[in-house]
Amino acid sequence: MSLSLLATTPISSSLSSKTPLHQTPKRVPTTSLRANNTITCEQKQNVGPSQSIDRRNVLLGLGGLYGATATIGNQANAESGGPIQPPDLSKCHLASDDETGEQVNCCPPYSTAEVHEFKLPQGPLRHRKAAHLLTPEEIEKYNAAVAKMKQLDPKDPWHFMQQATIHCTYCNGAFDQKDHEGKLLQVHGSWLFLPWHRMYLHFWERILGTLIDDPTFAIPYWNWDNPNAMTMPGFYTDKSSYPFIYNDNRNHDHYKALMDLGYKLGDPNPRPDQYPEVKLNNLRKVYNMYKETLGKPRLFMGAPITAGETTKEGAGALENMHNLPHQWVGPVEKPYHDMGNFYTAARDTIFFGHHANIDRMWEIYSIMRGHKLEFESKDWLDSSFLFYDENRKVVKVKISDVLNIENLGYTYTSEVNAWRDVRKRYKKERLGRKRSAKEHVQLLPVSEFGTEPRPLKEPIRILVQRPKTSRSKQEKEDDLEVLVIDDIEYEHGQHSSFDVFISKPIEGLAGPDYGEHAGHFNRLPHFHIKKEHHSERKAQLELGITNLLDDIDAETSDNLVVTLVPKQGKVTIGGVFIELQESDL
Ligand code: C2O
């Protein structure tokens, strides 16, 4: 993956530097993110059989680092498999808010509705714009649309609260998976995350447009990956001018503050003199996320899940990152309602601005990959969900229906990606600071993780063996080097997070600081998989580190020093290892 590919702005359609020998299935070739009404509504998928890579093969060739069985994240068990099916509407039950311990009713008000097939919408292309750049007229229109939604009959499926409750339905366990009793339908922590939220936003936007009779109506996105928008866009916090967009259940201390993507609950706001550094670090996190995951969609999008499966929860890098603004907007004290808890998150209009940005970031990822399909598996493409649409029908939507946003009738305005050339700046400003020769550096002994799970109460510093050293440029393009933090256990009613840093050992010893930030694990309350609360599946965090190792000149090291730094919640780590994963580009 060449760096020039990363340097493209979202409007240009870049292609992979490697031309595949055979025609790989692609999404409909979109020529640009701009208006283009000539694209046919027929979406050719041309999908082959499930082709998930057997990670065991990759690992066994390396001489088993952590124990082969522990590294296979997603093998299906005997009676499970296949795409996730839409729920049986008549079998909705109480969901739970584990943060408060309450049982909550998140059932949709259409338990007997007839289910229709989803059809792609017709009509003009809608342009989603950056929230901080909306004109007063556009904000006014948005406020008016939300006002109509809030003034409907509370039992109307279009009502604002009914719409907000859909998020609880699919996250807090209002339905068992069809034909898999006891296994709850959950759209977070896997490859369902991005497509499900795209569907959710689509219908929210269509309904708002219908309510104000404007087929061009598009929701704004909170462009927080841009240094000019790392604060809450003003209209979300302007109660007197936009009372219907406004929501009070938030951390009011953050109304004018700069968001640090390294935030944990209770951290003080950055001071103005720290802004340049916070912005640079934020941009670098976004840049690294793209750079380290382009060749391996599961790292960006999340790990596979199939019907009935109870394997490890594996949120991708974008979902992990997305949890932070949730937490940062939400109240600092319990209960973390609204944005800080999945049960209530969509009661705040900023949820939709935040998720439109997440959706846009997925679209940018897709453009960077030349629109190569992220997963060819039918288990992904045919997974489907039910939504109540803008024509007052319940429709069944498949993931393959929503992979082309222009076919769905919308696009994003083309803001330049502020993070696209941050690497040079970061290298110069941060990594370039050499220690002076006289500086006394104290080195610390460091050992391997061991075989027992370890509670993450204080920083854990360990030596981790690499599968291969001194990899050539070609080898790095063929296989991504991935750091796996395995069998993570955490409490589901709380915020849980930790940071991961990497450094190069100095003659087998660890240097005085943690090294470079490689990624983070971050979870909100709450995350339901099974009805019995205490047997939730464990989580796994996979972080691409190929480029990071170049940045710290560690390509020739046999081992790396990995430091896990606890931030929030009670977390236990099962193991840490490094493996190679084949790139699909
Ligand atoms: Cu369904 Cu931002 O989460």
TrEMBL record:
Stretches the record annotates as Disordered: 1-34
Biased composition (Polar residues): 1-22
Cofactor: Cu(2+)
Matches recorded under Pfam families: PPO1_DWL, PPO1_KFDV, Tyrosinase
Keywords linked to the UniProt accession: Copper, Disulfide bond, Metal-binding, Oxidoreductase, Thioether bond
GO molecular function: catechol oxidase activity; metal ion binding
Domain Tyrosinase copper-binding residues, every copy: 188-205
Domain of life the protein comes from: Eukaryota
PANTHER family, A to Z: SHKT DOMAIN-CONTAINING PROTEIN (PTHR11474:SF76), TYROSINASE FAMILY MEMBER (PTHR11474)
Family (UniProt): Belongs to the tyrosinase family.
Protein name: Tyrosinase copper-binding domain-containing protein
Record lineage: Eukaryota, Viridiplantae, Streptophyta, Embryophyta, Tracheophyta
